[in-house]
Amino acid sequence: MTMQPTGDHRESDASTEQLKNDLRHLSQTVEELVKATADDSRGHISEARERAQQRLSETRAKLEARGEKAYESARDQMDCCDRYVRDNPWTSIGIGAGVGVVIGLLIGRR
Length: 110
Description:
Blueprint: H1 7-39, H2 42-87, H3 89-108
Helix pairs in contact: 1-2, 2-3
C-alpha cells in the first residue's frame, strides 16, 4: 500500500523549503555585512546592516509562525487522540495491551 502525501505534508515541505531559502538569504546578507564592515565604508555598512536587520526580522517572524503552527497541529492531534480514547475506552485498552505485548516480546528476545 503506497501512502500519498497529504495536503498538510506538501504544505509542510513547501514551508520547509521557504524557510531554507529565507535562512540562506539571511546568511548571504550577514556575509555582505561582514564584507562591508571590512571596507569600513559607513554607507555600505549602514545599508548592509539595514538589510540584515530586515531579513532577520522576517526570518524570526516566519520561525515563530511555523512554531505556532506546529504547536496548533500537535494540540489538535492530542485532542483527536483524547476524543478517540474517551469514545472507545475498551478499544484503547486493547490497543495499549497489544502494544505492551509486542514491546515485551521484543525486549525478551534480546
